[in-house]
Amino acid sequence: MSHTQDKSAALRQGVLIFIYLAALTALEYFIAITFKAVSILVIVAMIKAALVMYYYMHIYKLNAESEDDEHSYEYKTGTNRLGLWLFLLSDSFVFAGLMTTRINLLGLTRPHLDQLLGLVVTAILLLSSFFMNRGETAMSHGDKKSFMNNTLVTFVLGLGFLLGVVLVEWRLAAEGGLVASFGNPAAGPMGAVFYIMTGMHAFHVLTGLIFLGVVWNNARKNLYSARQHWGVEAAAVYWHFVDLVWIFYYPALYLIGRVV
Amino acid sequence: MKKFFSTALARGLVWQLIGTLVGAGLVTGIRAMMGLSITDTFFFTEPAWVLGAFFGVLFFLAGNGSVSDWFKWSRGIDTPEHHEDHYTGWEKYLNVSLDHKVIGIQYTVTALLLISIGGLFALIFRTELAQSQLQFLTVDMKLFGQNGPQLYNTLMSLHGMIMIVSILLGIAGIINYVVPLLLGAQDMAFPRLNAFSFWIAVPAAVLLLMSLVLGGFDTGWTGYPPLSVRAPVGVQMFFLGVAAAGWSSILGALNVIATIIRMRSKGMTAMRMPIFVWAAVATSIIALTATQLIGLSFQLVMFQRLFGMGFFDPAKGGNPVLFQHLFWFYSHPAVYVFVLPGLGVISELLPVFARKPLFGYRWIAMSSMGIALVGFLVWAHHMFTSGMNEYLRVPFMYSTLLVAIPTGVKFFSWVATIWKGKLTYPTPMLFVLGAIVVFLLGGLTGPPNATVSVDLHLHDTYFIVGHFHDTIFGGFVFPFFAALYYWFPKATGRRMNETLGKIHFWLMTPSFFVLTFGMMQIGLLGMRRRIVDYDPALGFDSTHLVLTIAGYLIGLSVLIFIYNFFNSIKNGEKAEGNVWNSRSPEWQVPSPMPVHNYDQPFEVVGEPYDYGLPGSKYVEFSSPAKSKHK
Lengths: 260, 630
Prior knowledge:
The complex is a heterodimer.
Chain A: H1 7-33, H2 38-56, H3 73-106, E1 109-110, H4 115-140, H5 144-175, H6 189-220, H7 230-255, E2 258-259
Parallel strand pairs in A: 1-2
Helix pairs in contact in A: 1-2, 1-4, 2-7, 3-6, 3-7, 4-5, 4-7, 5-6, 6-7
Chain B: H1 2-5, H2 8-34, H3 46-64, H4 68-74, H5 90-94, H6 100-129, E1 142-143, E2 146-147, H7 148-183, H8 191-213, H9 227-230, H10 234-262, H11 275-307, H12 320-354, H13 361-374, H14 393-402, H15 404-418, H16 427-444, H17 446-450, H18 452-458, H19 462-492, H20 498-524, H21 541-571, E3 602-604, E4 619-621, H22 624-629
Antiparallel strand pairs in B: 1-2, 3-4
Helix pairs in contact in B: 2-3, 3-8, 3-10, 6-7, 6-8, 6-21, 7-8, 7-10, 7-12, 7-19, 8-10, 10-11, 11-12, 11-13, 12-13, 12-15, 12-16, 12-19, 13-15, 16-19, 16-20, 19-20, 20-21
């Protein structure tokens, strides 16, 4: 498979996928406010996840042929890639466990949250994934400057998401009465589930931001080339994974069920 | 002594202490500023202890140097792929090494240490149980803020978890040492991650032991809420210790899978891999994924205690049964993590000592994978009495009974391999045969527990305890000892003493039968598990006395083993060649193994277990000239 033969074609593909993802997110929102069909929301989320895993995280590269020489950079990158994906597989069990907790404790109800804010932070995270993809594409064609600019934009958007959730959303939710029951024995599991899910995700966003900072700094030191940039690829895949989790968490917290 | 204090182990422990104080001090300072209480029963408050324990683990790892290469990489500094070890002798094992063989030995020795501690705890509470009424763990005694029965609860709980961690480290030790040698690889795929996985287990063990002195906990190793929500602060140390040990297991498993997929030598197709490698894959798949769920379930309880988040508090709309689902989603497959490598050791060693091909290689390989995959679907059989939805019981009963099929395949293969073989009985073979018999007992006593109607009676009795110890001794302890006796010459160039080995076996095995049969017998008659005392009118006194004596005999046999192990490193009979006359590649080169394993790469040219077939060959080493050409 030759998905990234030509730089402009690869960039164009990134734009196209972003448009698909944005349209599907809008569709999700529309479904949620009109006919509330959970099964359709699940299907849409799975389509989005598949698009991200294939076109942004390049899962097919796990299958890429590499040279026989076990000491070559390509061969080691193949091993590293496998290791990263195994880690993500393991990590996804944490998120799946939290999702199970949510389904078990809340069922078809959801907390009262600011819908507009939810849509905005989701859009910001999606946009950051788009710029991350542009950055990685640039690096794999040796364009360090474009990589650094795009990564910077990704970083700023990611920071915006993190602050939007932790500073704005958490405060608004708490003011609206959604508390993790600090000293409030009457508070139900709603707040607990909301804060643990967004909190665990925010923790991953934070580690992703640190990762982006590290590769940005190393790119500044000219450590990556078109042929050798495993660090960049790893940071990008990890960042898209953070987005992937939110693809499921956003509908689970904002769209599914009736507000309590 | 001075040498000891400059080792990575000692440095790490000092840093852990500093980290604990820093973390606890931080929380205490913040609480002081907020006007909250700053001291509690155990000096610091609970949040202070939690952050302290967490910082302690981080400081340990940062302080002992096991993550320094990663920090260098993140700043763009390259490091050589392999460090040469600067140390020789015992110092090599107390410092950070990237060599999988050194790490394997580090794991194994730590596992033996923890087995001894966990066994000691068992002997303490077993002694109390020898007679009804309270003898020395009385209500009046006080130790670590606990009275006798509370201490009993803590020791009983810690016996469980420390043994579990020691098993995880034990299998990691064998897998780490053996798998790269069987594959013909120079090392594991990620040597630094490998070192990290080992070193994070050390502060984990420290945390588990810390729980003993911080008030202990009375929940058993399962830590069910609401009991674990009310337990003393020790339970938080237990949660954090399990989380750290869990990361050790997860990252170790990741490394094993990547190594096996990427680093096999030429010609080693999937169906020509040694059978132990298949077992390592199967066990790693479970450890990699499911382990996250026990960490998560404990984390949620931890947050419920710290922040009042009511996940498992029915008064707040939470659901305690949810905890059990999350917990058992790991903790049942975990027993397959424990036994699959052991069953792999049995299949690996049996053909060597029966001098016959392993019967049904493909079926054995697939049965390991089958057990691992079915293992994901059986967790709720621990919860038949928990009050979960009743319609879930029958599907979980059948999925559990299904495990008997791949396990039966293994037994069939072992029996068929032994049949008409030319058996010899050195110590490793004795332990292999012992493992088969003991695991058979464990296997046969399983289906009654899996059957809902019977389990309603058996649940939480000594029958379960006896069954469990049968599976774990048969699936882990016996094969672990077999593996140690078998690969000891590879690691040291010397053999362990045969006479002492046989004494070890012939002392441990009958004592063990007495122990578990006795447990199952009084369990059927209604002896509850996990209790410090029992009614003398039940008439269990004499049986309990026999069980205690059997327990001490097992302890004695393990002491003999440990003496034999450490004594043979220096004084054992020299054994540098192919002592067991094995076909496996690691025995085709002299012992002990050189630092970078094989000088010449080998190619797999035949089936691994064709013992006794004339002219058959498993591996062929390339000659120096040929390899230069390549």
